[in-house]
Amino acid sequence: MPRMIARRVLYGFLILNVMTVALFVLVRMVPGDPVRAQLADAAVSEEQLAELTAELGLDAPIAVQLGRWYADAARGDLGESYALGRPVTEVIAERLPVTLELTVMAVLLGVVVGLAAGAVSAARRGSWIDNIVRVGAALGLSMPNFWIGLLLISFVSVVLGWLPPLSYRGPTEDLGTNLAQLVLPAIALAVGLSASIARMSRSAMLDVLGSDFVRTLRAKGSSEFTVFRHALRNSLIPVLTLVGVQLGALLGGTVILEQIFALPGLGRTVFEAVGNRDYPLLQVSVLLFGFLFITINLLVDISYGVVNPRMRATSR
Amino acid sequence: MTERSATETDSAARAGGAVTEPPPSGAGEIPVETRGQATLRFVRTQKLGTAAGLFVVLLILLAAFAAVVAPFDPTEQNRNALLAAPGVGHWLGTDDLGRDLLSRIIHGARISLYVGTVTVVVSLSLGVLVGLVAGYIGGAVDGALQALIDAILSIPPIVLALFVASLLGPSISNVIVALTIVTAPRFARVARGEMQRVKSEDYIEAAVVLGASRARVMLRHGLPNMVPALTVVASLGFGNVIIAEAALSFLGIGPPPPQPSWGLMLSQGMMYFELAPWIVIFPGVAISLAVLSFNLFGDALRDFLDPKLVR
Predict the structure, then answer these.
(1) Structure confidence by residue, pLDDT tens digits, A59-86
(2) Are B154 and A15 within 8 A, CB to CB?
(3) Would you kindly state where each structural domain of chain B is located, as residue ranges?
(4) A94-123, pLDDT tens digit by residue?
(5) Partners of A80 in beta bridges
(6) What is the complex's ipTM, to 2 decimals?
(7) Cβ of A14 and B147 within 8 Å?
(8) Which residue from A142, A203, A206 is facing B239, i.e. has the nearest CB?
(9) What is the pTM of this model?
(10) Any idea where the ABC transmembrane type-1 domain is (chain A) (predicted)?
(11) Which end of chain A is more exposed for a tag (fewer CB within 10 A), N or C?
């Protein structure tokens, strides 16, 4: 197990470096001058433009720029955002928690609702509840999350006459406001996840309910509750896998939902940075998405061992 | 839809595979299903999937004949019918510029299906090529390709597509480029897995011993064997591409206005929800129905071919 983890960490590190280089080269190969993008319509002479370009180090060959980026990064300096004029680390430190909070809320919501729906559906197989869950899951997987977000905010504002507070507050500043702002986007984000979890846990539960050990449990007179508990625990592994698989869609979903709900998160940062050709901020924010994806998937893999003791023994 | 009846569908997959790869002659009389018989059995066993498939066909026809079917010009503005409610004349109502929503949705299907088709076809070709090579040759080539694929797949698809499309500028072809970059690695991964699975089979070894070239082994023996798996991922991938296209359009980096892209219609209608909820409801329904039908069709196909084929 420790060897497997070490190998996975090393490989993740390698992947991150492939990403770093690819992103770095890609943004600089595509037409579009970051200096002009920052200055917008301000009248500047060609000389001033060249001077600014040199100041930002953008006149050097790409390989040299990349080398400098790595050298700086090694010292903990990720550069300064062109558009905001602040260190990238500072901007990220502000915005990452928003996206993380949103994602965690969505995962919790999705897992709880999905597992409950899947379990009930499997236990009452063929009933009207089962049918509702299955139709609901198929629908939930087909609706774009930003549309759900739009419908939610529209419904809430028109029918209930309530609008989430506009200017963002962190959870430590004002927890009530913070939750009020995040609940709708979190629901919108959770729909797809809970739909796929409901599906997966339903079929996993059905598999377990038909297995020998469940028959033995019933034969020795265990209550239905005990049977249910065993079945649920055994269907947790595919659910875990699914969270890992769906993570990309989940993190990606934050980009648009943060846009709709005016949340200053990482997704919105990518959107703004790419528009401004804000190379330093863009590089780090996209990389961070990759880092999150790789890290969480690694954690998912490690947690298999916790959920399923068999894997501890057999894993390479 | 995801009911498991492993034994029945398993043998079906083998029979289905045999359609493209005829059994060696003289191997006894193995009953082989023709393509027509297989289709009939699909229609009989996968009713929901068939209905979904028919809906896809309907959508394609609507998109193809949009100019004839749509009651109005999708960009024609009508000042006498701004934000008109759904009713006779404008079946789904009009938007803030008095444009007929039904006509815009029908024309929007053209964009979605066009982007979806081109993206899926190009991604499939690229992905299969990379997957075949990585899976068959293995070694360092495989390692390098795997690292690249993993790097791409570790960035959330929307983030990467947004990154690429936004750098390139808003246009349909740039959206296709961006979505292909996101989609092709997924197909490559499936193709690689299938190639690896097939690689150790006896008939591949036989072909190698008989002196078949690498290209011949990959294309003649590897490719036909991954058709079932690829059909399923392609169908499911189509739905994802449609959603992603809508998302990019929604963010304003899809095809520029006045083109009636579904995602753009949603973002433009956002501020009129209170006055005219239909502007936000119908394009979303269109996206969901299109994606739903591709998903249901893909699910049915997977169950039909082999439930264990693709997760």
Answers:
(1) 778 888 888 888 888 888 888 888 888 8
(2) yes
(3) 45-73+90-305
(4) 899 999 999 999 999 999 999 999 988 888
(5) A87
(6) 0.86
(7) yes
(8) A142
(9) 0.85
(10) 96-300
(11) C
